[in-house]
Amino acid sequence: MRRMWTIMRKEFIHIWRDPRTLIIILIMPVTLLLLLGYAIAVDIKDIPTVVYDQSLSAASRRFLDRFWQTGDFKFVGHVNNPDEMLQWIDRGDARVGIIIPPDFGTRLAGNRSAAVQVFIDGSDPTVAQTALLVAQSIGQAASVEIISQQLGALGMTGGLALPIDLRARLLYNPDMKRINFMVPGLLAAILQMQTLFLTAFAIVREREQGTMEQLIVTPIKAWELMLGKILPFLILAILNVGITLVVASFWFRVEVKGSAVLLFVLALIFLLGSLGLGILISTVSRTQMQAMQLAAFVILPMLILSGFLVPRENMPWLANYTGYLFPITYFLVIIRTIIVKGVGIVALWNQAIPLAVFSLTVFVVSALAFRKWLG
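Request: output the structure for the sequence above.
Response:
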């Protein structure tokens, strides 16, 4: 322990004397969380919408008001023909175009159906899907209301009973806020990138500075050197977990619904594996540039195949199973489940066990690789 503590003390002194590393460790996670949280964790609102209202009737105005009242659509202008509407969408000035026919009001007054055409820019599938679902819901709600009014006019005052009364209940995230799903994922991704890049330079830096020979002649063992290199960054990473959770709770209103203790314990296991992977990259690299390139080569597949941005269930089978090779794949499920659903270890053992096995395996492989390099 005394030899390992000496290595740890050396790492802490190096971090303290390197302001750039200290800033990266303490400030980068919070900064990235704030920037990316606003950039990718927002709900789709105020979709710019242009209108070609040929009816100009009270019925058409009431129908359009349904769109503006949802908050999902934002009126940006009137046009005089369909070609002008498409020009707005082509330029990106509008994402949605609504065409109301001239006989809209008269057809509804005569108990006949009226067709409304909605053009949606599908270049951004996320925005397009939101616009399509909300527009369909508005059309269905308006139809039900009109049918009720028509039945009432015919003397059927008992009201309209729909054939199917479907009552959906949203669990865990009833408001369907994307930020509640994306912020926990951002925390995992930021911690993964930070720990991997920081420790990727730990061993190779000793080589380039010429201090590795001094460590070789000391009686320190390979596993002691590994722990001595990893533990300082592990302590700082756990501190960052607490800081980022506080920022997520007070700034984005994403609170931890489950056990914070369980989250910290599983985060500790995740960070140990991530740091060990960084040490392994540092061990097999000759220069810091090689370590950076190799770390970037590992990070990109991790973020893409882990389910951070795209659900893994929708991936091809090869990409889906490849994701199981990365620790962030398991930790994403863990952190999102604890924060959003508030469940315990009983529901997470199938994620916690593979994560623990990965972390232990990576650390052992790192120690063996470093011992072989010393030999």
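Residues 314 and 320 are 8 Å apart (CA to CA).
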